[in-house]
Amino acid sequence: MRLTRRRLIAAGGLTAAAAALPAAAAPPVRVRIRKFAFDPKTVSIKAGERVEWVNEDIAPHTATEDNHLWDTGELERNGSATLTFDTPGTYAYFCAFHPKMKAQVIVTA
Amino acid sequence: MTFRLLSAAVLAGAVVLPAHAAEPMNDLEIAHTAYTAGQLDIRYAHLALAVSENADVRSFAETMIRDHSAVNSAAVDLITELNVTPQDNDLSRALVKGAADKRAELMGLSGNAFDCAYAQNELGYHQVVNKTVEDSFIPAVTVAPLKELLTDALATFKVHEGHAEQMVSNLQCG
Fold this sequence. Notes:
The complex is a heterodimer of chains A (109) and B (174). Chain A is mainly beta and 109 residues long. Chain A has one helix at 11-19; strands at 3-8, 29-34, 37-39, 42-46, 49-55, 64-65, 80-85, 89-94, 102-108. Chain A has a single domain, classed as Immunoglobulin-like (Sandwich). Chain A has one helix and nine strands. In chain A, strand 2 and strand 3 (37-39) form a beta hairpin. The longest helix of chain A is centred in the N-terminal third of the chain and has 9 residues, at 11-19. Chain A starts with a strand and ends with a strand. Helices cover 74% and strands 2% of the residues of chain B. Chain B has five helices and two strands. Chain B has helices at residues 27-51, 55-82, 90-107, 111-140, 144-171; strands at residues 8-9, 16-17. In chain B, strand 1 and strand 2 (16-17) form a beta hairpin. Chain A binds chain B through residues 35-36, 57-60, 76-77, 97-98, 100, and chain B through 63, 66-67, 70-71, 74, 149, 152-153, 155-156, 159, 162-163.
């Protein structure tokens, strides 16, 4: 599975990264991390699309695939990370710091 | 508002905060106490990392350091923005004294005895601090950004309490 990761820690980073994307690229599906939960818990995308995680909690979080196939790395408050999913499948993930936080990404062809 | 509710021996010998029937605490005293409570839990966590060889206990301790550091960093940002100085107070001093005594006790332990004592103390500590923040600090605070910070912090601390409860259960301390 090819995975592209952009870690965007500030709004400035978001702007810079977005500018580098092709004009036709669809905006990523956003998952908000707040009150120690991923919202929404399930996102469905097509292969090649992106998911962006934004941490709104004070505590740092991660989005880490259950088998560690992918990982956003540590997201501080207001930090974000965007991953591109090219391979169809259902990817369960959790927060490596607070393992009771669980969610999934469903990627279809 | 008084702080009589802080008189609590949550677990035998684990957490004992003194009764405070003194004057109501102001915002700066509450800020100081909340920050102090976080710093003390970070110190407990560093002790756990130095002593414990249990992976779950060490993971919990790392989470305490990470999360409480983040909360206290946000607190520092807020007091810097507001250009105020938190005020030391009797409750902060009592917390510091109680934590020093507990650390001395923990330092005499090792292995499962340490893990259980640390885990039970974390559970008791978070139970008492969370109740205090929720029932006393948040209602009493008058500055909106501080109330918001305490509310966000409480959400974090409640997760810690649940995590500590699970850790105590898993350790089968009896």
